Amino acid sequence: MIYIEKKRTRFLALPICFTTYTISDEKVTITSGFLNITVDDAFMYKVQDVKLTKSFMERIFKLGTVTCYTGDTTHPELVLLHIRNANVIKDFLMNASEEARRKRRTMHTMDIDNSDVDTDDIK
């Protein structure tokens, strides 16, 4: 399944911005720009967490902002601003990222800080 959404304005939810979000089972692609085009990709297996926020104006115009927290070095946060069907896309991202991690047999590990451990106690 592929979702293609455009960034919209908060007022009247018009798609007059030049940013397109393409979400597939394999990756998330953000294409932005009019004269100079920038394309950013993040593989789905790198998506660790997803957050949905809706401001008052976004709720009036049935929009939402989805933030993907990734393990990617270039984009630790992918923000899909003011998109329609934000609830469906958030659920799709959560399920697709989990499935992509299962397919690649990758495991999300937490970064544990060892600064509290006294090295004199370890012998």
TrEMBL record:
YdbS-like PH domain location: 18-93
InterPro entries: YdbS-like_PH
Domain of life (superkingdom): Bacteria
Pfam families, per database record: bPH_2 (PF03703)
Listed name of the protein: PH domain-containing protein
